[in-house]
Write a structure and sequence with these properties.
Length: 136
């Protein structure tokens, strides 16, 4: 089974393009913290390329920005191609996303909380801060 679930922050704004056949594709890089720390006690991160297709790609391009947190569910893909300079074969590892959840609100934009407004959510009690140190 090939399944990947990642949570991290976008390192730059997503790049949206259209293929020659008219399909929409969105690409971005997700910085994912490691559970361990380095010798200086700082967390290290892996920078994972993410590829999203279709309607989800359009939503990502319109809703995500650099620094926002996202949860990506997809599959790992490893592909090869010939370098343009003729120096040989190159290998690319990326995650092909099936779904992307936006964990932060876009600055100055409406909340993306599945159709509920803040007024509707206040009836459920006080908000709980998100803890990025969840060990799972």
């Amino acid at each position: 089974m090939n399944k990947v679930i990642l949570m991290g922050r976008l390192t730059r704004d997503p790049e949206v393009r259209y293929t020659q056949s008219g399909k929409v594709v969105c690409q971005f890089t997700l910085a994912v913290d490691r559970f361990t720390t380095n010798q200086e006690g700082q967390r290290e991160a892996d920078f994972v390329p993410i590829v999203v297709w279709g309607k989800v790609a359009e939503l990502c391009g319109n809703s995500l920005t650099k620094g926002q947190r996202a949860l990506v569910d997809g599959r790992l893909q490893i592909r090869s191609y010939e370098a343009k300079d003729g120096s040989g074969k190159r290998w690319m590892t990326e995650v092909i996303a099936n779904s992307v959840q936006f964990l932060d609100r876009k600055a100055g934009g409406p909340a993306h909380e599945q159709g509920t407004s803040k007024g509707e959510m206040e009836s459920f009690g006080s908000p709980v801060a998100f803890d990025e140190e969840i060990p799972f």
